[in-house]
Amino acid sequence: MDDLKMIRELRSPAATMPAAVEDSVRDRLRAMAAEPAPPERRPAARRTVLRVGLVGGLAVATAAGVTVVQTVGGSKSGVQLAGAAELGDRAARAAEAAPYQAPGPKQWVYSRFLSAGGYDMNTWWKGVDLGKKQETSEMWNRVDGKSSAYISMKGELRVIGESGDLAKKGSGGPAATMVGGGPLYNLGNYHTLPTDPDALLRRLQNSRYPNQVGETGPEDVFEMMSHILDDPSPPKLRAAVFRALPKLRGVRLRHDVADAAGRRGEAFAFVDGLGERVSIILEPRTYRYLGTRQEVARPREVTLDGGKKITTRPGTVLGWSARLDQKIVDHAGQRS
Amino acid sequence: MTAAAIGPETAGELDDAGVISRSLTEPECFSALFDRYGRQIYDYAARRLGAQAAEDIVAETFFAAFRQRASYDRSRSLARPWLYGIATNLMARHRRTEEKYYRTLQRTGADPLPEPLADRVVRRVAAEAEERRLAGAIARLHRRDRDVLLLVAWADLTYEEVACALDVPVGTVRSRLNRARRKVRAAFGDTDPTAEEL
């Protein structure tokens, strides 16, 4: 569908600036220009907002604290699993047996991940670059969800805090505040979720964002579960997610799926309404979260801007990531 | 600061970086940037938040830009992404209002953007079903994703310009845009309202 064209047409044409507004801005700029003060080099007095560079929705993932609790023989990916339910059960047991120390609310989750580059909006159906064009990103999320940090394009640490918390200094960039809602459930409120798999599934299926339009579908539940696995979430909740995933309509086991770093694992895969398959890839022995992969599962004819029709090709990889590191640290910017 | 020998008129011959550079010693030159981009920024803000809020956004954007001009990266000849970045950040404070407007449009078919232009009122009242659905999908996007989507669709920025505006890597822009577009497409249940798919 021609989504961009539709968006371009929404609220078009826009209002034009009244002449009186133009004049008043010009007058004020002139007045500011006449003031003797030198231009500011520190952050602007008025706070502005920056956003965190998160990789695609499912990209940030891991199971910090999960250690090897069982070694199983079998195929190169560890064991030949019969289905998603078995993967879920094994991963759940691994999660339950793993040592876990709940991070403090003021601690940070440091994540480093790799993602495939080469995505081009105009030719999105051609997929991402599977070769060397990969991008590494790092980010820090405070456990209470109220602050995050990332490395800017200039290589500087940028901390985004709630209003009142202060952000990075030094580059002359604006101070930053955290805005916007993140996932409905996060490390700050995971304790409110049931740890029985069926109850968890019901809760997630019935959960709604305050501004949600439409029903919560299985792809939304899959994404929420993926987020929980992204985080260093409590073992009982992880176990419940692992056991609930196979119960979600459409979730299948996929063997030997590689993440963006080339590590192969077992995956929970889900094909969404667009015929695109998302895989959550787990390390085949420890069931640690490795990364995600999105690809075309079913061909689909799409009409582009300008009326040209293309058909997506099964197997085309649309998104690919790998979690390289995740740690609990005391400060943003800290890596170990 | 004394009156400059070279005023805004002469600044017209400089590129944006040149204007900013000159404005460090001749601050009145800075208004040349407003002449170049003021309307565009207003346009963008008005589409997201309505005319009234857009007045404040456009004014604050240029005042903030003026104050921060010394830190502008003058290797970037075009200041447009920088200005859109400032405007986008300022608009973040109005996120809830913005989302409420989309939701109202979705629910009622009437766009509640304050102070609509007279010739648009009729169209707004009669918003098509797909426009309503689209508004709902936009309301539901994560703000980070919506910023990228609307900077591309409404402000016509390239990925590199969006990356520069939001100070994130280009790859992040791509992934956010990708996700936003998928969500919009998904809201239409994978059917194209303008051209039926098989």
Automatic annotation (TrEMBL), chain A:
UniProt-listed InterPro entries: CU044_5270-like
Keywords linked to the UniProt accession: Membrane, Transmembrane, Transmembrane helix
Residues annotated as transmembrane: 49-69
Name of the protein in question: CU044_5270 family protein
Species of the source: Actinomadura yumaensis
Species classification: Bacteria, Bacillati, Actinomycetota, Actinomycetes, Streptosporangiales
Automatic annotation (TrEMBL), chain B:
Protein name per Swiss-Prot or TrEMBL: RNA polymerase sigma factor
Residue ranges annotated for the RNA polymerase sigma factor 70 region 4 type domain, each copy included: 133-183
Family to which this protein belongs: Belongs to the sigma-70 factor family. ECF subfamily.
Keywords for the protein's UniProt record, in alphabetical order: Sigma factor, Transcription, Transcription regulation
Membrane-crossing segments per the record: none
Domain (RNA polymerase sigma-70 region) ranges: 33-99
InterPro entries per record: RNA_pol_sigma-70-like, RNA_pol_sigma-70_dom, RNA_pol_sigma70_r2, RNA_pol_sigma70_r4_t2, RNA_pol_sigma_r2, RNA_pol_sigma_r3/r4-like, WH-like_DNA-bd_sf
